Structure formats: C-alpha cells, structure tokens
C-alpha cells in the first residue's frame, strides 16, 4: 500500500506545524509566479498546492497516494481554484506541460532511496523549462538525531496519534498509529509503516549536478545558517 493511503483522512490534523507558510513566503519572496506554470511534486493533501494555484498561471499537483489527492481535490474545490492532480510515482514523473517552478516540500525527497535520486532528479529536470527552478527540502542532521529512537504523541479532540521512529544506518523507520473518532464516539484504529532515507548535503548536490542542475543555494531552516546543525535543508536549484 502507498504511504498515507489510510492516514490521509487525518494527515492535516497532525501536520499543523509543517513549514507550509515558510515555504509559501520563500516562493513569494523569490519569484513572481503569476505567469508561471508550477508543479508541486509530492503534493499530499494540497496545503501548499492550492495557494500556489491561486497565484500561478497553472498548477499541477503530483502524488503517489490517491487518498491524499482526494483530500487535495476537496481543498481545491473549497478554495475555488483549479489544480490539475496526477497520481504518479515521482520516478516516472510526467507533466502535461513544462513548468517554470517545481517544488517538493516536507521531506518528499527523503522518501526516495539514494539509488533512485538521480532518476527522480532527471525526471524533474526534464519537466522544467530552460532556466526553470527546482526547490525542495530534506531532513537535516539535527532532525535525524531527534528521530533516532524517537517517540511522539499528539492528542486532538477527535483523533490521537502515536508516532515511533528509529534510525538504522541511513534508513528512518516510522511506525504511525492513529485513533480517529467515528460515529457514536467509537474510534477507528489506523496503522501505517513508512520508510525514509537520510541524504547528506554532499550526496544531494552531487546527484543534482549529475542531472544538469546548478545548486544556487542551500538554506538551513529557511535562513542563512550553518547547515550542519539544521533541522531542514532547503535546496534552490536551476537548470
């Protein structure tokens, strides 16, 4: 089963602290996207995709989870904006038109094994117009340390999340358990296991260069800080 198929219905509840606003601020401060064709690769439930679509010439959202895309479609409908949503594996990315800006946020690249990075980066490269930009983030060293033998829980009015993580070599294992309130006060249990892969800044940069990208900036937590202590590294690249 694709990651986040069962968890899609409660995903937004537990992603309230995800850096969608910093990403939106970064994009709006760097690029005038009014005339841009934009792609959100690994768009999830469309939290970033929909505001981008409201500003861009066109916007495509791509995700491997049909359940997540269903949530994104509902979000776009409620906001009365048009988003083209495609269910695809990013390793076989195909867009209906070349785009000026592609983004992959909130650890999308960390779901890609190191052996597949170049395949994904090449697919994104080929989907961009000449001079186009690919911006994305990855897990930084500080967050990797926090994920080693980590345990988190979150209690909301109608849902409870238990989240355990382990780091085994370069692999990050996630056990996600959610209890979601349904009719008559009963709770439905949702369980998923996810795998992520830690990529060093050097490995990412090398893979990007091999695929024809120029690495313009690497930002630690959206600012100019030392990258060796970052929770999140943001790459700004151009073809």
Task: Write out key terms for the chains shown.
239 residues, four-stranded antiparallel β-sheet, alpha/beta, seven-stranded mixed β-sheet, 11 strands
Write a structural description.
This protein is α/β, with parallel strands linked by helices. The chain is built from 6 helices and 11 strands. It has helices at 20-30, 49-55, 66-79, 117-127, 141-147, 201-210, and strands at 37-41, 58-63, 84-87, 99-104, 128-139, 150-155, 159-168, 171-181, 187-197, 214-220, 232-238. The strands form 2 sheets. Strands 3-2-1-4-5-11-10 form a 7-stranded mixed β-sheet, with helices on both faces. Helix 4 (117-127) packs across helix 6. The longest helix has 14 residues, at 66-79. It is globular and about 55 Å long. The mean pLDDT is 90.
Summary of the model, kept short:
The chain is α/β, with parallel strands linked by helices. The chain contains six helices and eleven strands.
